[in-house]
Amino acid sequence: MQWTNLSEQNVYKNRWFRVNLADVELPDGRHLDHFVIRLRPVAVATVVNEANEVLMLWRHRFITDSWGWELAAGVVEDGEDIEAAAAREMEEETGWRPGPLRPLLTVEPSNGLTDARHHLYWAEEATYTGHPEDDFESSRREWVPLKLVPGMVARGEVPAANMAAGLLMLHHLRLG
User: Which parts of the sequence belong to the Nudix hydrolase domain (predicted)?
Assistant: First the structure.
């Protein structure tokens, strides 16, 4: 039951994404037009301290007009290493430079429409370097007890699927 992408035509592009129209052949031989959004990889990072608290950001997303807890994240620049991008984003958005990063997981948050891959990392230590350069990214930054994460996800306080998956994985790794 595999669909085959026979060709794509670009409809729109900018620095952040491309919108393409694909000619897709279904298993029964029929064809359909399908829009595909092509995105650069996203790098995500956080730290869990010795008290099992995770560094999180409280922010508003204007597209969905919603507030929620997230981890520091951003697009990987051309030629940039994904892990390095995760460390850069964490420091820019939180003011904390992570220690050695460990891969946590990679997710495809909307694979029926986009090719987006979000690569999540975590560290067990970080150094405070000062007020975040990109303080406009969030209203506040807080150390949140990891034990509270499942309840926060269940109540919808972590609305982004990539963030919820990463936080639940951290909860599992650290607290079982």
Answer: 38-171
